[in-house]
Amino acid sequence: MITVTIVRQSADDKQIVSFAIEGHAKFANPGKDIICAGVSAVSVGTVNAIEQLAGLALPASMKNGWLQSDIPLQSDPSVNERVQLLLESMIVMLNTIAASYGKYVVIRHKIFE
């Protein structure tokens, strides 16, 4: 199963401060697993989009079955807005995958502690 964890600043301040995606769907054999491919495309694509469109290189760790990033707060509010919009978009796309393949993808939301 793939577990997506989204961490927000607080219940009042919904800003995303980090996310982690771990595991494998095991929907199909490696290389043919459309769920793993979809989650990877959405998450890695979002990290790349943040770099290209917001000008922020996220400090991300990535290895087989694992992607994690802490989102640094920027002094420019417009950069933060773009980053948050792209991250919210990632969540919408991951929720779409989970809605169809919930047995293989779970999304958890946490408050920063």
Automatic annotation (TrEMBL):
Q: What keywords tag this UniProt record? A: Hydrolase, Protease, Ribosome biogenesis, Thiol protease
Q: Which GO terms describe its biological process?
A: proteolysis; ribosome biogenesis
| Keyword Membrane carried by entry | no
GO molecular-function annotation terms?
cysteine-type peptidase activity
Q: Is-annotated flag, keyword Hydrolase?
A: yes
Signal sequence, start to end: none
The record, for CDD domains, names: Prp-like
PANTHER family given in the database record: HYPOTHETICAL RIBOSOME-ASSOCIATED PROTEIN, RIBOSOMAL-PROCESSING CYSTEINE PROTEASE PRP
Give the record's family classification: Belongs to the Prp family.
This chain belongs to which protein, by name?
A: Ribosomal processing cysteine protease Prp
